[in-house]
Amino acid sequence: xxxxxxxxxxxxxxxxxxxxxxxxxxxxxxxxxxxxxxxxxxxxxxxxxxxxxxxxxxxxxxxxxxxxxxxxxxxxxxxxxxxxxxxxxxxxxxxxxxxxxxxxxxxxxxxxxxxxxxxxxxxxxxxxxxxxxxxxxxxxxxxxxxxxxxxxxxxxxxxxxxxxxxxxxxxxxxxxxxxxxxxxxxxxxxxxxxxxxxxxxxxxxxxxxxxxxxxxxxxxxxxxxxxxxxxxxxxxxxxxxxxxxxxxxxxxxxxxxxxxxxxxxxxxxxxxxxxxxxxxxxxxxxxxxxxxxxxxxxxxxxxxxxxxxxxxxxxxxxxxxxxxxxxxxxxxxxxxxxxxxxxxxxxxxxxxxxxxxxxxxxxxxxxxxxxxxxxxxxxxxxxxxxxxxxxxxxxxxxxxxxxxxxxxxxxxxxxxxxxxxxxxxxxxx
Length: 429
Fold this sequence. Notes:
By secondary structure, the protein is an all-alpha fold. The protein has helices at 2-14, 19-35, 42-52, 59-72, 75-87, 93-106, 112-129, 134-145, 155-164, 168-174, 176-197, 207-233, 238-256, 262-296, 298-309, 313-328, 333-351, 355-369, 377-386, 390-397, 401-413, 416-425. Keywords: Cell inner membrane, Cell membrane, Membrane, Transmembrane, Transmembrane helix. It is a multi-pass membrane protein.
C-alpha cells in the first residue's frame, strides 16, 4: 500500500499526469490493493467530498477574485505609483518601489504568481523606461513577489490552516514580521546594486506631491488594515475577510475609480472560476490521498524515523527545512502543502515546535521553490512577462535567493519573529 501511494505518486507526476489525477490514482491503487475484494468504491467519493467540505476553503477563490479585480481595475498601477513616490528618492528608487509595492499588494492578493503577473508588467515597463538593466528588473520583481504569500493575507497559509487545523488568523499575524524583514533585506540588496551600477533616484517630492500620491492610493492601502484589523478584533473570520476583500475591491474599482466595467467583471469571474475549479479538484483528490496516507501508517513511520536522527528540535527542524527546499523545486506550493502537511505535522508536534512557527517556515520554504528551477512557476511567469529566455531569468534571479535564505534562517533560529506578534495580540484568548 505504501509503495502505491509514494512511488505511484512520484511515477505518475514524472509521467506528466495532472496533479489531481496523480494524487487520486495513486491513492486508488493503494486502497484497492489494501482492501481487495472488500473495497467499497463509494468511500472514494465520500472522502473527496469530505476534503472539500470546509468553510475555510471559501477564502481561496475569494482572495483570488479580489486580487484579479484589483489587477483589472488598474489599482496595481496606483499602488506602484505611491510606492515610487515614498521610496523613489533612495538610490535605485524604482527597485525599492518594486519591493514596497509588492509588500502593499501582498495585503490584497496573498499569492506570488498574482503579484508577479499583475504588478510585474507595470514594474518592468517602468524600470526599463528608467534605464535599469532588464535582468535586474526581472530578478527584483520575481524575488519581491514572494512577499505576497508571507505577509497577510496568504493563500498558502489558508491551505496550511485547513490541512493542519491551525488558526489562520494566527498564521496571518505570524507572517507580518517575516514579511517586513524580507522587504528590508531585499531593499538593502537593491541599494547595493544601485551603488555598484549607478542606478538613478527620484528627487524628494514635496509634501503636496506626497499627499496627492497618498490620496490616489489611499483606498487600496486600507485593504490590509481592514482585513487584519477585522480578523484580530474578531469582527470576522479569515473566510469572511476574503468576502469583504472582494466587496471592497469591487467598490474601489467600479464606483471609486470607475475603471471596472461589466465586461471586465465578467471575465474576472470566469478566470477565477477556472482557477478555483483546478484547485478544488486537487483539494478533493488530496482529501482521499490524505485518508489513505493515514491508514497506511506512513506518517507514523516517518515521524519515528526522524526522531531517531536526534532529539534536538532544531536538528529535526533543519532536516525538515532541507526536505521542503528540495520539494519546493518540483511541486507547486499548494500541492506540496496538501500532500506534506499530514506527513510532517506529527513530527512537528512530537518535537514541540509551534505549529504557527512551522506553518510560516513551510510557506517560506515553498516560496523559495517558486524561484528555483526546474519548475519554479514564478520563473516561467517572468519569462513570459519579460520576453527573456528561461536560462537568463534563472541566472538573473539566483543572487536574489540569498535574502530569502537569510530570512528563512532567521525565522527558524528565532521563532519569536513569527509567533511573537500572534501571541501578543491573541494573549488571553
